[in-house]
Amino acid sequence: MLNFIKTFITMKSIASLLVCLFACISLSAQQKDSTGKTVAVKDTGGSFVRRMQAFAKVSAKSSADDFAADKAAIAQNRIIDEIKKAMHIAKVYLSTGIDTLGTKEQLARIERDFTMAGDGVLTNKGTAQTFRNLTATSKILTELLSKAGARKTKLDFHQQQLSSFRYQLDSLLSAPDLFKFSTDSVVLSKYIGQIAVLAHEVHPVDSALKQAGNNVQSLLNQVNMLVFRLQTALEEIQLYQKDMAGNTFKREFNNIWESPGHYRSFKEILRQAEAKGLLTLIFYVQNNTGKLVVLLLLVFASFFYLRSLKNIYRENGLLTPDLEGQLVLRYPLLSALIIVVNLFQFMFVSSPFILNVVFWTIASVSLTLIFNKFITRYWMRVWLMMLLLFLVAAFDNMVLQASRTERWFMLIISVTGTIAGILVLLKGRKQELKEKLILVAIGFMVLLEIGSTLANVLGRYNLSKTLLISGFLNVVIAILFLWTIRLINEGLFLAFSVYTHQDKKLFYLNFKKVGTKAPILFYLLLIVGWVVLFGRNFAGFDYIVDPFKDFFGRERTIGNYTFSINTLVLFIVIMTISVIVSKIVSFFASDQHFSTGKNDQEEKQGLGSWLLLVRISILAIGLFLAVAAAGIPVDRITIVLGALGVGIGFGLQTLVNNLVSGLIIAFEKPVNVGDIVDVDGQGGIVKSIGFRSSVIATWDGANVVMPNGDLLNSHLTNWSLGGNRKRISIQIGIAYDADLEQCRQLLTELLNAEQRVSKNPAPVVQYEQFSSSTIDVKIYFWTKHLAEAYATRSALIVAISNAFKTKGIVIPFPQQEVYHHFPDKNDETGRAL
């Protein structure tokens, strides 16, 4: 606007000047002589045009310079604002930047843990490496590498941000428009002052960015070096592990009776094992806190269910003194611990040995308390001996570096286990044993302990230690798993014994085949779990499992969709679990066993009304989790939904109508589970409300499967919405000579005396009309429950009849009096009739 005004003023001045000049030219061209006549003069316009052209050039240049100066001023103001904004953002980022002191402390901790983890593997190696030491060190270094990598990522990002701020400031400060100076000395002076202030503000920010960048780069160099050392150490450990897996039977030490080589102090070895074990456990717990929380929640849920089941059996006097077949109910908390811990431990992938020992110890102690006074004293001693040997062997297995002291200790344990196992197999009271498969595990233990003894004597330390822990672990795990299966089977059998109303449409187990003995599938899963836990102790187990992991985890492509077998299996498993959980919830929630109070039927109906929504929620959550776990792209789901829409348009209208009707019933609740209804003259009780159809149990004993669309669109009569009451009427005819007030009083007394008649609203006795033979009286009353309506009416009819007979009130038969009239045969006119 300012430039426009300046230009306008300039053009107006030029126009005025031109007008004046043209006026002068006209006057000079028409000069008069001394006689008064006009005299023509010589034309001098050529020089004037040249002067005007020169004036126009000067004016145009002046205007262009003014416009360029104004444009430069606008650009300079914009750049200065951007510089100030960039400085403000940089200051804020610097104030909330990376914690340099915290980073140095973390690097120091990683360095300290690295030094500790490398003890016995990278330093103080000893004569030979041990499998357990390599495994523990590998887990620690992997975690340290993860932490160092995370810190490196943060430092890289921070360095990029600092560099970005400096680059932004440098590019703004070197913009050409900043160096376009005005020819006006006053404007130039003000601008130079503004630039000086800006330079004074930018300098400390630029210096701080530069200093922060140098500090970050210094830390980044340390982290990069640490990451490189960790990666190198891990590669070295992997080479050790690969060599050990290929040389399982290789001798590491001299025979046990020969003179030992150089060994560290046994106390130092124990301190090293303790430090590594605790560090491994801490790292793993930090990374799997969510799984541990889920484990605890499952334990509490199982405990609550088993305790409720035990209360049911206690209230009904169903508990047996010896708890045979009911052992799962003896200590609900201990049973929950055994079942959940033994099953859920497989969710902890690559867990450290010390965590597994904690799980096995918890389950074993719980099983010991359950065994008390349940199994015979002999087998209780055998179990305690096996458990003690296992705990001792587990403690030895956590010792990470070899020593002569440990080798003698291992020899004593293996020989003790061998002798104990042989004695149990030869002289054990097998007839008292409740699970015969335990003998197979003990026999296998004897073979492994003999192998451990021979390997130890002949200097095969790693093989001996692996066989030692595997032998005792095999017995303890076998016993834990066998009794876990037994407790699960007992829990299912006991539950389905009290929840007697099994519905194949909801959930059904045939305990004619399952109940006294666990299904074979449970034992197959037991064997798979035993193989996994047993195989983890061997150095070559990972190399055997890796091809299978690669096969199931390898990505495959169909069109544009990439998947793996693991993701497909995970999708199917999650959806299967969702369906099973929804059916189990429906089964237990719809069972009538929990009815213990007067309002239980109403509570059951209230619960039943939400079953469909609960099932839909469970399946929806399961589908969401399955899609997310399988990594199915959303656009693929959109294509499927589009195809489904086409299918709906062609032939699935009825199905979709029933599904939508099911949702409407679930939300609007015109009918609930347990309601007494009449649908087009078909009466019964609503047994279940499904996604597509509902089941109505009729009074004739049949189950009518009615599509939800028909149920919603029919003329539905819901007696339960009115409180399950029904009004009944009885009409009676009494004789004309009866005492009407006495009759009313008698009927009122009979109605009040009947317990099944509701007193609110009160019964009504009402005289209707004079009939041909009787005076009609009609009584109206409400029954407390619909199911008692007709029985109540029948009982009242009998009572009324007896009372009327006692009081002499007659209920006359329908009758007519016919009078025969014979007049004279001839009428008054004399005509014959």
Automatic annotation (TrEMBL):
A Pfam family this chain is assigned to: MS_channel_3rd
Annotated GO MF terms: mechanosensitive monoatomic ion channel activity
InterPro entries noted in UniProt: LSM_dom_sf (IPR010920), MS_channel_C (IPR049278), MscS-like_channel (IPR052702), MscS_beta-dom_sf (IPR023408), MscS_channel_2nd (IPR006685), MscS_channel_C_sf (IPR011066), MscS_channel_TM-2 (IPR011014)
Stretches that traverse the bilayer: 289-306, 327-347, 353-371, 378-395, 407-426, 438-459, 471-499, 520-545, 565-589, 610-632, 638-660
Superkingdom per UniProt: Bacteria
Mechanosensitive ion channel MscS C-terminal domain sequence ranges: 728-811
The entry's keywords: Cell membrane, Membrane, Signal, Transmembrane, Transmembrane helix
Signal peptide start-end: 1-31
All copies of domain Mechanosensitive ion channel MscS, residue ranges: 654-720
Membrane topology: Multi-pass membrane protein
Record Gene3D superfamilies: 1.10.287.1260, 2.30.30.60, 3.30.70.100
Subcellular location: Cell membrane
A GO cellular component entry from the record: plasma membrane
Entry similarity comment: Belongs to the MscS (TC 1.A.23) family.
Protein name per UniProt: MscS Mechanosensitive ion channel
Source species: Pedobacter heparinus (strain ATCC 13125 / DSM 2366 / CIP 104194 / JCM 7457 / NBRC 12017 / NCIMB 9290 / NRRL B-14731 / HIM 762-3)
